[in-house]
């Protein structure tokens, strides 16, 4: 019985870790990291980093209040994060109203700069839908030039 409970606990921990990793990495990158954990060790690489900051987002959030801006944050960052993941990028961090993503590591991507540019263009394409959804709540649209 103890062995069975230990196995269940191990499977739960594995699933929890996989869920956390897949929030920031694509499933393919997660598999590569499982196969080769040394990919996360420090080394010199040429990478492309994308910073996405939504202009006036703090003012919009203040106007919406805590209860309403959480869904705005979630919807907005989910849509922008998906643009990164669709181009096999790594979500490095969320810093306030900023998203930071990277291409070219931990797995080499010879076309990392192109992937980052495609992700940025995809972000610009999703802004009209985000604006339509949230403009009525905040009475202000997200500025497309700020992504």
Shape: globular
Question: What is the CATH third-level topology name of the largest domain?
Answer: Alpha-Beta Plaits
Residue stretches low in confidence (pLDDT < 50, at least 5 long) are: none
Order of helices and strands: HHEHEEH
Q: What radius of gyration results from the CA coordinates?
A: 18 Å
First and last CA, distance: 54 Å
- The CATH homologous superfamily name of the largest domain equals Nucleotide cyclase, GGDEF domain
Number of strands: 3
Instruction: Count the DSSP helices.
Output: 4
Quick tags:
3-stranded antiparallel beta sheet; 12% strand; 147 residues; alpha+beta; Alpha-Beta Plaits
Give an overview of the whole structure:
The chain is an alpha+beta fold and 147 residues long. It has 2 domains: 1-41; 45-146, Nucleotide cyclase, GGDEF domain (Alpha-Beta Plaits, 2-Layer Sandwich). The chain is 61% helix and 12% strand. The protein has 4 helices and 3 strands. Strands 1-3-2 form a 3-stranded antiparallel β-sheet. The N and C termini lie far apart (54 Å).
What is the strand and helix layout of this fold?
Blueprint: H1 2-24, H2 27-35, E1 48-53, H3 57-86, E2 90-95, E3 98-103, H4 112-138
Antiparallel strand pairs: 1-3, 2-3
Helix pairs in contact: 3-4
């Amino acid at each position: 019985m103890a062995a069975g409970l230990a196995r269940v606990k191990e499977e739960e921990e594995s699933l929890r870790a996989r869920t956390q990793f897949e929030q920031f990495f694509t499933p393919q990158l997660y598999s590569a990291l499982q196969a080769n954990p040394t990919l996360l060790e420090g080394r010199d690489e040429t990478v492309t980093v994308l910073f996405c900051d939504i202009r006036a987002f703090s003012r919009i959030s203040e106007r919406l209040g805590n209860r309403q801006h959480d869904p705005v944050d979630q919807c907005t960052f989910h849509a922008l994060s998906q643009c990164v993941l669709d181009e096999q990028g790594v979500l490095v961090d969320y810093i306030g109203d900023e998203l930071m993503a990277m291409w070219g590591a931990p797995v080499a991507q010879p076309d990392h700069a192109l992937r980052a540019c495609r992700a940025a263009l995809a972000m610009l394409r999703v802004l009209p839908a985000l604006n339509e959804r949230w403009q009525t709540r905040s009475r202000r649209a997200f500025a497309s030039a700020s992504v």
